Amino acid sequence: MKTILIPVDFSDTNTNAIKYAADMGCDMPVKKIILLKSYYTSVYEQILPSPDFLLISADDIENERQKIEVQLKELMKKLKNRCHENIEIETVVSTEPIVRAIHNVVEDQHPDLMIVGGDMGHELSMIGEQIIEIAKSSPVKVLVIPPDCNYHKIEQALVPCDLEALARLGVLKGLNTSHSWLNPKLMLLYVDPKKKHIGREAEFEASVKQLVNCYECKLHYSDDKNIVRGILNFATEQQVQLIIALPGKHSFFYNLTHSSITEALSLNARHPVLILK
């Protein structure tokens, strides 16, 4: 792990995600944290009046940019005080929409991980409001931090999975080499209310051991009819420090509807979710 990208909106949820990143950096060889702030103003906002009949002028935009730079400097100072002294902190201010700004930084800086605050209804947060779009479009792994979540060393991680798409587990192989902090015990959970796994347990166990042989792992089943509830209840009962979402249409995250993803993230008040790519 060399570089972490954190989109910034100065909300409490976002500030908590930054604190999480700083504390996590004490457990892993992070070299750089990039704080990205987008202050996109559309052409329409510049030429059409607001409901208060106010036009956004070039001076207004420049004043906003200067204000943002002052806020970023203050945030960078606080982050440096909390981070390991060897971690470099960089700030980027972009006039592009947030998703495009993220892609530009990823292309230029090649971060290994992006961290965002998981605000779903707790407060006004530009990043939180667009978290689903950001997570799905990101070309790099995304770690979503719930609003009240503090960093704890990751010793156990839960991987919700669909055993009809076991090949997806292969993406886990590289994590404990590319992320030296991420070498936990894995709990694989198949939420299977139709109980399709019955009679095939030995087959699934053998496949899992072959695909995830670089980890200590155990396969679990749940017959909860609500996938989100089954996952979050299991995570709480087992006191895991991380939920890992596999990529692809068979991931518990990606195969949910937009409203279900929102529900999953809003109900998840305790566990960071790492969305793989």
TrEMBL record:
<dbReference type="Pfam" id="PF00582">
    <property type="entry name" value="Usp"/>
</dbReference>
<comment type="similarity">
    <text>Belongs to the universal stress protein A family.</text>
</comment>
<protein>
    <submittedName>
        <fullName>Nucleotide-binding universal stress protein, UspA family</fullName>
    </submittedName>
</protein>
<feature type="domain" description="UspA">
    <location>
        <begin position="1"/>
        <end position="146"/>
    </location>
</feature>
<dbReference type="InterPro" id="IPR006016">
    <property type="entry name" value="UspA"/>
</dbReference>
